[in-house]
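User: Second chain of the day. Same drill as before.
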Amino acid sequence: MGMLVDGTWQDQEVPRTNAEGAFIRNESPYRDVIGSPLFPVEADRYHLFVNAGCPWAYRTILYRSIKKLQPYLTMSYTLPAAGKQGWTFGEQGEPLLGAIHMHDVYTEANDKFTGRCTVPVLWDKQSNTIVNNESADIIRMFDSAFDDEPGVNPTRYYLTEHASEIDALNDEIYTTINNGVYRCGFSQSQAAYDEAFDTLFETLGKLDKRLGDQRYLCGASITESDWRLFATLVRFDVAYYGQFKCNLHRIVDYPNLWPYMRDLYQQPGVAETVDIAAIKGIYYGSRAPGILPRGPDINFSEHHTRAVL
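Assistant: Same format as last time:
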């Protein structure tokens, strides 16, 4: 996928690996927050630009739903598969800015922007600019920024009593699982792939064992770490197992991770955020010849027994 250089789209593929062939993820350039003087909490002021198949954008889609933030956050979806100009909204564009491509959103905020045009993007409709494009920041602000507003679910997932444990889990899950599947899929050397593959399945095995005697990663309550893990798990057997060569085990093969994933999927507001067609579209549709697999057949609604833990 190309990028913007001084506000002009460049089609050339930009290298995403280092000299050893290992995948490197770029830092997000926009890191402001709702609740600051520049970006106060207001109904219908903010907008999300997302791709339903992307696990990073999915985090924000999920939090918007489980926190019941729909009155405060409108949303535009790109098409699942990227095109020659990156993420696209299709010929008709999206309704807020009339953007055809995601890079149009970035140049609306800064007509000299240089960088990748990633999702998610949290947009301020009043000042007509990007607030933040880092999913970890966005879900953390969604966790509490709107809690005093009518109709919002006050449940918090970044729990003070588990903050240090959540932070440590987030770091490990991001490095070895969330980004680990990409390190497998985008590796350009056998050594880089092998290292990513081994650490991915080592952590999955460790978490499966951890979940053998407790319902969630930090005990009896769902935390941010659970949702960050879920975003990858729900895509794993559908996409990463095959397309990214993460094929030692499927999630359905794990005695604890599989019912745990179903438990999270069956929480209020979650099932409607999981778009399997979009997941297949982003991982298979973006690569020639763009043929989408018909399987696997996975029943996320199958009964689980996690509540007894």
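The longest strand covers residues 46-50.

User: Great, on to the next one.
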